[in-house]
Amino acid sequence: MSGALREAINLPRGQEVVGKTDFDLFPKIIAGSFRQNDLPVFQHGKPLVNEVHASVGGPGCQKIVSQMGTPGLY
Question: How many folded domains does the chain comprise?
Answer without folding.
Answer: 1
